[in-house]
Amino acid sequence: MAPQNPFSPLPISQKKKRGWQVAGALIAAGIVIVFVATRTPGKSPASAATAPSTAVTTKIVTLTAIPRPTSSGVSTPPTAVPAAPPSAQTTIATQVGAQPTVKLAALAAGKPVVSTKTYSGKGNGSLKVDLGGNPAVLKFTCAACSGRTTLTADGAQASLVDQVGPYSGSRLLDATSAASTGKLTISASSTWSITVADVRSVKVTKNSASGHGDTVIKMSGANAVATVANVGTSDFVVIGYGANYPQQAVHQIGTFKGTVVLTTPGYLQVESDGDWTITTAP
Q1: Which end of the chain is less crowded, N or C, counting CB atoms within 10 A of the terminal residue's CB?
Q2: Residue 232's closest CA among 203, 211, 207?
Q3: In the predicted model, what is the mean pLDDT of residues 107-119?
Q4: Residue 110 region by backbone torsions, left for phi larger than 0, else alpha for psi between -120 and 50, else beta
């Protein structure tokens, strides 16, 4: 066989094979370079600028517990374990709200200045009242009402009655300097009646009073320690108007029995959905 000339051109098939070998070598070399570059510590400014951040931000949220109201209306620091409803306790009445002065404290006995007026209607309605800036007592009755029954005022007192079903009770109107009522709005499902009268028409008691539901009374004795009891399922509230400011003696949900200090003589607003008694020492 004749010797092959090293400078003679390669056949086509061998040229293709050689080309693929060269291409494969270049690709392999590129992979190695990329691998080494990614494994090298430190990064160029460009890579540092474009690399996504892997830092984790932790946000600490502080939860603030809401103070729990006591039966006297004074907020106390929250506790981990809820306190059981007290069966008996002694409390001192605390001032309520933004401290509006009480008109009733300086109200002298004498001729009534608010004329007694009775209004009646059926279903939703509204009516204008003119108290002349004087305190009054309002009696609202809706014996056949069903569903939600409400009575609201345009003054500072706003909500007077918010009851499900029938209602019969009395509420103080414009007892403080912050309240000035000119309009009453009724939402009811049946016939209703409203009587507005001078606050001095309220029955006066010296040592004890009892009743059912929302009631306005006047205690004539001197500053008194009173035993207060209520049998009900909803809010039970006693607010005194014998001082210069309204004083909340009791604010409890459901059944309650305790001893409270009342500033008397003075008017009391009792709010209850059950039977209650207030008794002072003779």
Answers
A1: N
A2: 211
A3: 78
A4: left
Tokens at 182, concatenated: 């000119």
In order of 206, 207, 282, the CA distances from 279 in angstroms are 9, 6, 9
CA-based R_g, the chain, Å: 41
Q: What is residue 107's three-state secondary structure?
A: coil
What mean pLDDT is predicted for residues 206-231? 92
pLDDT score of 45: 40
**Total-model pTM:** 0.64
- Neighbouring CB atoms inside 10 A of 105's CB total 18
State whether residue 111 is helix, strand or coil.
Answer: coil
**And the tokens for 219?**
């205690």
Instruction: For residue 205, list its beta bridge partners.
Output: 219
Residues 261, 263, 264, 268, Cα dihedral to 10°: -90
Round to whole Å and give the CA distance between 274 and 124: 26
The chain-wide mean pLDDT, for the chain, equals 75
pLDDT at 33 over 90: no
Where is pLDDT greater, at 25 or 202?
A: 202
Mapping DSSP onto H, E and C, the string for 50-99 reads HCCCCCCCCCCCCCCCCCEECCCCCEECCCCCCCCCCCCCEEECEECCCC
Label the pairing between strands 204-205 and 215-219: parallel
- Is there a contact between 103 and 175 (Cβ–Cβ < 8 Å)? yes
The dihedral built from the CA positions of residue 39, 43, 47 and 52, taken in this order, carries a sign that is: positive
Q: Residue 147 burial (CB < 10 Å; 0-12/13-18/19+)?
A: exposed
